[in-house]
Structures are given as C-alpha cells and as structure tokens.
Amino acid sequence: MKPFDYTAPASLDEATRAGARPATRFIAGGTTLVDLMKLEVETPEHLIDLNPLGDGDPSLGTVSELPNGGLRIGALARMSDVAWTANVKERYPVLSRALLLAASGQIRNMASMAGNLLQRTRCPYFRDTATPCNKREPGSGCSAMQGFNRSHAILGTSEHCIATHPSDPAVALVALGASVRVRGPGAQPSAERTIPIASLHVLPATRPERETVLNPGEVITSIEIPPLPFARRSLYLKVRDRASYAFALASAAVALDLANGTIRDARVALGGVATKPWRSTAAERALIGKRATPATFRAAAEAALRGAVAHRDNAFKVELAKRTLVRALTQVSA
Amino acid sequence: MRMTTPPTDPPRRDAEGYRVPEFGSESHWDPSWAECVRLYNEVAEALSASPPPAVDDQSSDWSRRQFVATVVAAALAIALTRRVARAEPAALPRPATTSGSAAAVKLRVNGRELSLDLEPRVTLLDALREYAGITGPKKGCDHGQCGACTVHVNGRRILSCLTFAVMQQGKEITTIEGLAASAGASGDALHPMQQAFIDHDGFQCGYCTSGQIMSATAVVREPWGPADDDVREAMSGNICRCGAYPGIVAAIQAVRKASAADQGGRR
Lengths: 334, 267
Known about the structure:
The structure holds two protein chains of two kinds. Chain A has helices at 12-19, 33-38, 51-56, 79-83, 86-91, 93-100, 105-110, 113-117, 143-146, 169-175, 197-200, 281-287, 294-305, 316-333; strands at 5-7, 24-27, 46-49, 63-65, 71-74, 179-183, 192-196, 219-225, 234-239, 250-259, 262-271, 278-279. By secondary structure, chain A is of the alpha+beta class. The mean pLDDT of chain A is 97. Chain B is α+β, with helices and mostly antiparallel strands. Chain B folds into three domains: 1-94, no CATH class; 103-179, Beta-grasp domain (Ubiquitin-like (UB roll)), CATH 3.10.20; 184-259, DNA polymerase, domain 1 (Orthogonal Bundle), CATH 1.10.150. Chain B has a five-stranded mixed sheet, with helices on both faces. The interface between A and B is medium-sized, with 28 and 36 residues.
C-alpha cells in the first residue's frame, strides 16, 4: 500500500476544504477503500477520516424523522444499524432487506450508508492493476468487453465500460425516490445541495472514470427518504451464486400500491445488471392501472429489460433479471 | 560471493520515491545477524581459498563449492538464530517503521492501553499481530472476504483487516485473547462460546476459529431469528475451509439456548 497522510478533521468545514485537494479520499467505514488501497487501485496521498465528525454531531450517524413524514439517515450510520431500525423495517422493508442481504455481518457493522452508495465496482479488471480498465486508467481500454464478463452489466453500458454498480441498498433507495444531502467546501448555505440518488450516479458513456456528480471536497451528509406509505408493501429480492455473502447477479426492489387487485402505484428498480442503481420507470408505467396478474408482471419485466445489451458470458442475465422482477412482484402482491 | 549487512542509512527508495521497507533496520537489527554474516563470509572465504578437487569441469566445481559454502553457513546461521530465539522466548520481532510519518497510536486492547509507533497505512490487524504481538486475530485473505481477522470494537464485530489502526483510537478493542475476561471470566476460564466450540467440534485446523468465535459471540447479541438458517446467514462472513460448519452452528445454537434459558430462569 502506498503511504498517505491521515487527517481527522474537527469540523465539516475543515473536512470539505481538506477533501477538495487533489489525490484525497474521504474514509468512513473503509470496507471498499482499504481493500482497494491494498490492491493499489486507490492510491490517495491524503486520507480524511469522517468518523470523528459523528462524535460532534450524532445526527451524522443516526436515523431520524423528517417533518414531511419521511426518514433522514445520517451518512455515517452503519448498514446494520439502519437495517434493524424499527422505522426502516416497518415503513421501508425493501431497504431493510436490501441492507441485510448485502455483504456480511462484520462489513455491515463497519460500512457507512453514504460509503455504500459511493462504493466502487467489483469488476475484476478494475480491481487488477495489471489489466487495462477505462474506469481505473482512462483511455487504457476495457478488458471486460472481450474478457470474462459473466458478472457484468447489461443496462446502461457503453463501449467503454460494462462494470456493474454493486450496491444493494442503493437499488432500494433509488426505488424509494430517496435523495442525498451534500455539503461542499465554501460558505454556507451555497455549499449545500440535494441530489436525487437517481441523478447521483452517472452512466459510463465515454468517461467511465467519472461515477457520480459529486465535486471535489463534496461530502454526503445524509440520505433523505420521502414518505411513501405504500412502501410498507415492498421487498428486495436478490439472486446470486450462493445463498449469502455474494454480490447480486440480478436483484429487484419493488413496492406496490394495491387496491382490490389493481395496481395504483408502483416502484421498480434493478440491481446487479446495470452500471448504476437502475430505476425502471418503464416497468412502473407497465404496472400502474393494471391488474396484479402474472401477465402484467411479465409485461413489466419485458419493459424493464428492453434495450439490454448482453456480452459473451452475461446473456443469461437478461432472462434472469426478468424472472427476478416477476418473482419479486408476485411475492410483494401476495 | 559475500553477504553484506542490510543497508541502514540512507533509506532505499523505489522508482516512485517511496521508502522501501527494510527488514534489518533499527529495531530489527540484532547483533546475532552480524555474527551470522561474519560466520558465513568466513566459511565462504575458507572454502573458495582451498584448492579445487580434481574434477573435469572447473567452472561447475566452483559453483558446487559455493553451494557447499552456502549450506554450511546457512546451517550455522540457523543454529545461531535458534540459540538466540531460545535465549529470548518473549522477544517478538517489531517491524521497522518505513516513513517519517509514523506516529504514536494509542489503542485500548483487551483492557490494556497500548502505544504503538505506526504509519497511518497499518491496518488494525497488522497493528495487533505485528506490533502488539496479539496474534489471535488471523490474517486469512486480508481483503474482508474470510472473517479470520474478526475482532470486537466497542462490542461490535468488525474486520480488523479493513480498517486502519489510527482510526480505532479511543475505542474498546477485544480479541479472542480478551474475550473470556470481557465476559467476566477469571484466570484460565473459557468464554461459554469457546467451551461450546470445543463441546460441539466447531473446528478442525483452527485457523478460522478465533474469527468464528468472535463473530459468534457478537451474533448472539444481534437481533437474528432462532433458526439454524438464521445462524448460517448471520455467520456467512466467516469462512471455514475445513467445513466445520455443522459444529459451529451447533455450538452457537447451544449458547443461544443456554442464555435464553438463563434469562427465562431469572424472570
């Protein structure tokens, strides 16, 4: 691992200013960053530890009510704590489930909610500094395109990158229409802004190295979930190579507003198959106003995967994602 | 062929200017190593000075004699090292610090305050094992995939390989060495989970076991369901290559049932 200097800032102001320097990374849980630093995929010269900020401002690490009836999740809240928070379990079971199906017990105790959103891809070529990768080394080429691409994305890809966004909770949050509050360097309040999670991540297009719209020094301070009463009927279904502790091959976050067998409103997002947390408004449109039947669910799945681009080893994901979504919708409407 | 002593000053740097870790510097430098080097060189010189035996191919003979010299010197060195090791059984090698940015890091481990001179890039796992001599947490994969390095920080199970020691100051760190005491046991008494792993054959080779037990003791405090499948899910971050999983599940369930019965009895 390359040497770096370590800073424990005393305030958010100090953190954002220090974080705006080149070759700087923020660290919270560290479960992605420390791993990638060992691989020398990440080689920061300065590391800013955000954890001490939680001592001064406990709201950075806790779940609280929003005046509008939604929930605010502090950026430093740990995945396991959020998953087991009663409000989250009752009002947004899709999020609780997505959190508990992610990673392992130890990692969920360490990983922060904001860090989970910003984790890097698990593409093996991205993680291997001996191979070309446009995301790690812009312009060097994509090894996955002609390589072993079984785990790679089929939605939102470009000819420069087909790396999958690995997060489970982000898929649930994008289905719920959640946003992040962001704080940047500079004077308040101009330094603060709100970004819907659907717009936080960007598609790889011609610049796979740019993964989010965050600017240097900007820190996520909280995640805000809007009130969504029908999300009490929501779930997260994750399909993977083994029963636990594996990344999704395909996953679905769904919420249905059902009245007498008719779908009044719906939320659908897919994981494990796309280059960013993938909300499918096309699938939602295919559901809204229809009867909750297998045919309706299948039509929604067809709509969700329209435009999918498969490569040599991941063509199976097209049908797998459809069936995952159909099963999720079947279970949530049961 | 002469062996030289390791360089001490100035520090070696790689092509990018980073200081190359030196096994032999400062705290690692042991006078017995100098003695080994001297012995090696004496033997090598004595052998190369002696007349070559009558064989056809002199060039191969020279390398053969060098080989003999190496073997003899290595044997001497090993013997000497063993003698030193026997003389100081408690002395643990302390890795050299490799950059000026090393600073005192204060950790509270198993109720003891430790002050270690660490670079920021030293993980908690390496700090415990290599600097503090606390070798209960094991280095399996070093990438957060196996769970062998599991320790408790403020009572929660975490992976010590995926965090920097400098980030864990001011927290209560518990390793397998301090587990029983943290639960109130005294002397050599085992933690109930340790005893359960023995009773239920929860291990074979033992490499993953400290991580399994640290994880298991935290799992019983987490809000999991009562089924064996809940235990399997809760413990999926701890890999056992021997496949002792049935025993591990049985051990954890035994502890959970015993503690539920205890609570029932008190009610």
